[in-house]
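quick one, 331 residues, struct below
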Amino acid sequence: MRVSAYEDRVYIHKPSAATPDSNLADDVRAGLTAALKMLPPKYFYDEIGSELFEQICATPEYYPTRIEHGLLEDVVDKIVDLSEPKVIVELGSGSSRKTELLLQAVLSVQPTLRYIPIDVSEKALIDAGERLVQRFLPLTVDALLADYEEGLKHERVREQQARKLFVFLGGTIGNFDHDEAVELMSSIRRQMGDDDRFLLGADRVKDHDALHRAYNDERGITAQFNLNVLRVINRELDAAFDLQTFEHHAFYDPELSRIEMHLISKLAQRVPIRALDLTVEFGRRESILTEISRKFTVQGLTQLIEEADLVVERHYEPENRYFSLILARPA
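---
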């Protein structure tokens, strides 16, 4: 599908022939009938959720976006010199604000560039695509409206024979447990040629209070973001979640080195999900795990990279060691 205002330079591809709510239906049924209820975090990101996340990134408590952006500013020229990409493929691109630094650095040393952002928010893809092609006249955007798995399999990724830089920023790798993270990065590795590179942004283990504040902002925007997944289920699956009867709860588990985000039912209740012909029972204070965000050591990140058949080429960190940017190549 072309974006009409810039139809010669911005394309939105929808890889899946499945109905938009088919994966949601399967995940909700499986997650809310499990002994320990859970929902995948990708369903936060409808239009409302994407906007809320942008607001979270601007809160004083949420350090990862600012620190990663500053670190990338400092090292972007080194990354571009080493990777020399003709194509940039980004997983979970969102607003593409940080990636804009990469695009600018690449286009300062070469005449053209193709950018393939992968995201589940169509509005985010369209808004970012239109903004970027206005700023960078030699840029072409081939956006994929898909989750990571679908996007990486798409022909627009596989057919590119030029040097590629795969980008996965924001610490989002922490939303996956170890085996899931290795599998995702192995999927990226399978799409890489010998000269391609992978740029990973990962949050580090640090002071527990800083971690707690980052996921419990004073204005309650993260709480709204967390509750939005119930709003998505209400709309897409004709459910009857009363958002007033659930509350946001996020905490750091030092043994697992991860933040956990939950939605806690304030009372015992039964919630119908009519599209699934399902009624979900909640005990008072029963929770739904909506997101994990793992925090890493340098050793843990190196192990993760190597298990995906990649090698760390460069590791960048700020003075406070709050965050890591890793440039990796095929082993």
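The mean pLDDT is 93.
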